[in-house]
Write a structure and sequence with these properties.
The chain has about 210 residues and is α+β, with helices and mostly antiparallel strands. It has three domains: about 70 residues, lambda repressor-like DNA-binding domains (434 Repressor (Amino-terminal Domain)); about 70 residues; about 45 residues, no CATH class. The chain contains eight helices and five strands; from the N terminus they run αααααααββαβββ. It has a five-stranded antiparallel β-sheet with strand order 2-1-5-4-3. β1 and β2 form a beta hairpin. α6 packs antiparallel against α7. The chain is flat. The two termini are about 20 Å apart. The model has no long low-confidence stretch (mean pLDDT about 90).
């Protein structure tokens, strides 16, 4: 999506309604700074307020995402293009998140091992006090388990899991992902659709 085009369109429609950025922000319960960012093309309105924004500006969501008024004959075609673009952008964002998951997991593991080996080595050979070694081990554990928590949260939220039995794609709960045995990013879980247990693989789209 062209954020600059969308931003200019929001500004144009706001002025047509004779609203200032502050007045529009108050209608949507956001800051005028947020409205300014939309209009400058630095960010998009959150999906939770998109309908309210469109109502305030007298436009459709499709027109908002396109950044222009649409003729009826082009409306459905443009709606499909917008949907495809949103899906593509979500897949790209999920892909980046899954890469970040790997980085977080590796970094947390390396820091954990470095702190553990350092604390043991300095305790044994450099007369590190016992309490200091314990503190280092606790810090190492916090970093490791904290990293694992965030990495697993990313894996749960990014993309979908696909049931091997029926092909159903879904986003499981964090608890289900955490408790499931896994091989790589495939996890042994119960499908909410067919109720069968199998290894569900991670996929980026729900088509």
């Amino acid at each position: 999506m062209d954020l600059l085009k969308i931003g200019s369109f929001i500004a144009e429609k706001r002025k047509e309604k004779k609203l200032t950025q502050l007045q529009l922000a108050e209608l949507l319960h956001v800051t005028d700074r947020a409205v300014s960012k939309w209009e400058c093309g630095r960010s998009m309105p959150d999906s939770s307020i998109m309908l309210e924004l469109c109502e305030a500006l007298g436009i459709s969501v499709n027109e908002l995402l396109t950044g222009e008024e649409l003729e009826m004959e082009n409306y459905n075609k443009q709606a499909e293009l917008n949907l495809l673009q949103i899906t593509k952008e979500k897949e790209e964002a999920d892909k980046r998140l899954l890469h970040a998951e790997i980085v977080i997991g590796i970094a947390a593991t390396l820091i954990f091992l470095a702190l553990v080996f350092t604390s043991i080595f300095t305790f044994k050979y450099a007369n590190l006090p016992l309490w200091a070694m314990i503190v280092m081990l606790v810090v190492a554990a916090i970093i490791f388990f904290g990293g694992c928590f965030f990495a697993l949260r990313i894996e749960q939220k990014a993309g979908y899991y696909e049931c091997k039995e029926c092909g159903y794609k879904y986003v499981p709960t964090y608890k289900a992902v955490m408790m499931a045995p896994h091989m790589g990013r495939s996890r042994y879980m119960k499908c909410p659709h067919c109720g069968k247990r199998s290894y569900h693989k991670k996929v980026l789209n729900n088509k």
